[in-house]
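Slide 14.
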Amino acid sequence: MILKDITQIRSFIAIYQTKSLTKAAKKMGMSKAAMAKRLSLLESEMGYSLFRRSTRQIVPTPEADRIFIEAQRLLDHVQEFEATFGKDDAMKGLIRVTCSITMAQDILARVLNDFQLKHPELTIELVATDSMLDMIENNIDLAIRINPGENTSFQGRKIGQHRMVMVASPEYLKKHKKIRQLEDLKGHRVLFINTHGEYQFKSNKMKIKAFTKPRDFLTNDPGVLTKLAVDGMGIAIRPLWNVIELVNHNKLELILKNEIINPVGDVWLLSSVGKRQTHRVRVLFDELVETLAPFFDN
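Slide 15: predicted structure.
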């Protein structure tokens, strides 16, 4: 294959990411017919099909999957070259970051806002969702994931542990029976979301929902439980990263610090292969590793 120009690579990436000639053409600022012709020429030069077409969608072939990783890497290098040696400042452009809704609200929104203020020509898009977005398909630069598993399309760094803890306000602990051992929890109002009810205390191997008394308050909003704990309404079971600042400011206290609640997960900062090589993404990656580490139990 002989590349005529970098637009071939940009066109291929646009089609791969959007799975649509119409959307890819719009993204590239050309007509659908022109985009279709570019794809036809590219496949002719490659000697095989890159996409399977139907009336509803375009599906990448295995060959396209392999090419995409290297194409994205090549394009990132080109963009880095343009930023370094061209007229544009390297700290310009868009960076898309994703994480869970609670983590976005509690930590990442503030951290990313501070970073953007230091680099005013950057645009930061925070995609807050509890769904596991496909980073390539959604053009995500960086993602914070818990136990992401092995994937050759990603590279990253472990920044800490996702560990569940029990917390209550100083006022609550003054008014209620002291908690010296796990058994003492049975006399207290324990707040947790349904998912965490399936977690187990390591010392007695019992699920949280089975060991504690039946809940009289249920919600799918974890932030509500943290607020209730701060207001002295019970003992909340929350991730350490969610409450660490409240603990440091004496609004909450850790209970039974040595009690481990399983599972314990690893927190990773991930980037798609090649994405981290761009200067702006690399700078933000390093900033997040340093800034987020204190929130997680290492």
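Speaker note: The chain has three domains: 6-85, 93-160+266-295, 164-262.
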